[in-house]
Design goal:
Length: 498
């Protein structure tokens, strides 16, 4: 799920669904608008001999091609004076760079390959991108979503969901950067140095660039943003494939947000026991009767569930559902650190996206929220660097960090962290009971919770409503398993308030 996925290997925050170049030929068995590479001449035999439902031996066929666009390259020999350096050309970095440059602030975006395509599949609630003016960046939408709580109960969510066209989104963002004068440099940042009113980055090609502010948008794995507390994250892990299948059982007018059923593990007693302790669910986006994106996901665990375990459960599920994979067009592994503390606030390197703790602690949702917060951060930067006052150094760091993370936003994040800590304590039965009650709430509550839009008071009201909608089993779980996370949350709220 968009929301639940961020690539573990991507150097920058990714956002969208897969792109297919014009050199690809359409599937002859599909009416889908998406284009795919022709089958490899040696692939046919592998397809027909692969195990029923087992896709693991199939080779992903899609090879991404860079965007063809003229961008403004920075000439290192000019030693140009910069105001802001953005590390990473993912959606967060590009959106921020474009918004800051609109006001005449001199910006350079540094990335190992600024024109390369983002690697993973993503989806989002349609209303989240619509309010940002990005409606055109969906290449497929579904009017509803569904959640299989168990074999006997299904929830239907009246909230449109969409698959983001990453080529369209990246073209839109990078074109905005070009028109507003953002410079680009192709390289990997190795080191960041700081002086009182200026910072510099050293790249792997030996070039050094200086600016008043460094913004790190390079993703979770970055070491440039500092922490002063143990990073006790929960972890979400998933394995996904975009596949051509003989057929599938999914309704074409609905995307499958979560499938918590475990009947597919009836003949796998060991897997079933492990799944009862740390459950996983299936997420699916059906494009037509033969094309579907499938992903097996562990919502959150600590320590992280093994990637091998995820794939074993997915193979068993697809086999049970009668889904025969003919071709794997794309394959992805996703790992998201969730929750944990915020970075040190303030500090000389500004973060955005995964480096700033913007992933939803309870769900992993991040992309739409990051795109919504990038303009807010940009305004804080422009107030300091886009005027004749030129506020730099510690006053600059204080303003930009607190612009992104004001007290109210920090307090609500603590509440979402409490949600994650609660989910960590639930087994399969508890998880089912939780989501059974959660999606029975007033849509205003669950919409707002998943989109990080609720105030602290609204979150408190959601909790009371959730308890009222919960089954006796779920209430017992809350009473017996939540006191410790609740006490930690209350303590953290007090500390943040001070």
């Amino acid at each position: 799920m968009e929301a639940l996925i961020t690539p573990s290997s991507s150097p920058s925050l990714s956002l969208s669904k897969k792109l297919y170049s014009s050199s690809f030929s359409p599937l002859t068995t599909s009416t889908s608008p998406f284009l795919f590479p022709k089958p490899h001449k040696y692939l046919t035999q592998r397809v027909h001999t692969s195990k029923f439902g087992n896709f693991l031996d199939l080779i992903p066929q899609n090879k991404q091609t860079p965007i063809k666009l003229d961008i403004n390259w920075l000439d290192p020999s000019t030693k140009a004076r910069l105001d802001v350096i953005v590390i990473g050309a993912g959606p967060a970095g590009l959106c921020l760079a474009e918004r800051v440059a609109r006001h005449g602030v001199r910006v350079c975006c540094i990335d190992p390959d600024p024109l390369s395509m983002w690697p993973n599949n993503y989806g989002a609630w349609v209303d989240e991108l619509s309010c940002l003016g990005l409606d055109s960046c969906f290449d497929k939408t579904w009017p509803m979503a569904s959640v299989h709580v168990d074999d006997y109960k299904t929830k239907y969510l009246d909230r449109p969901y969409g698959r983001i066209n990453r080529k369209m989104l990246k073209m839109k963002l990078i074109s905005g950067c070009v028109s507003n004068g953002v410079k680009f440099h192709k390289g990997k940042v190795w080191k960041v140095n700081h002086q009182e009113f200026e910072s510099s980055v050293v790249c792997d090609d030996g070039n050094e660039f200086k600016a008043s502010l460094i913004v790190d948008a390079s993703g979770f794995a970055s070491s440039f943003v500092e922490y002063d507390k143990p990073r006790n994250h929960g972890y979400q892990i998933a394995h996904g494939i975009l596949a051509e299948v003989e057929n599938h059982p999914f309704d074409l007018d609905k995307m499958l947000l979560m499938d918590w059923r475990d009947s597919h593990l009836g003949n796998e007693p060991d897997l079933r026991v492990r799944n009862s302790r740390i459950p996983t669910f299936l997420y699916a986006m059906p494009f037509d009767s033969n094309l579907v994106f499938l992903e097996e996901t562990s919502l959150v665990s600590r320590p992280v569930l093994s990637y091998k375990e995820i794939k074993l459960r997915m193979v068993a599920r697809l086999r049970h559902m009668g889904i025969k994979v003919k071709r794997v067009i794309e394959s992805e592994k996703c790992l998201i650190p969730m929750g944990g503390p915020l970075p040190v606030i303030p500090q000389p390197v500004m973060g955005i996206g995964g480096t700033a703790g913007l992933a939803h602690p309870s769900t992993g949702y991040m992309v739409a929220r990051t795109l919504a917060l990038a303009p807010i951060l940009a305004d804080s930067i422009v107030e300091c660097l886009g005027s004749t006052r030129m506020i730099r150094g510690q006053p600059l760091y204080h303003r930009v960090w607190n612009g992104l993370w004001p007290i109210e936003r920090r307090l609500t994040r603590e509440y979402y962290r409490f949600g994650m800590e609660t989910l960590l304590k639930l087994d399969l039965k508890g998880t089912r009971s939780f989501f059974d009650a959660f999606f029975d709430l007033n849509p205003e509550y669950w919409h707002g919770f998943l989109s990080s839009r609720l105030s602290l008071m609204e979150l408190a009201m959601l909790s009371l409503s959730l308890f009222g909608h919960s089954s006796n089993l779920s209430r017992f779980d809350i009473v017996t398993k939540c006191p410790v996370p609740l006490a930690k949350m209350m303590g953290n709220l007090v500390v943040e308030s001070i």
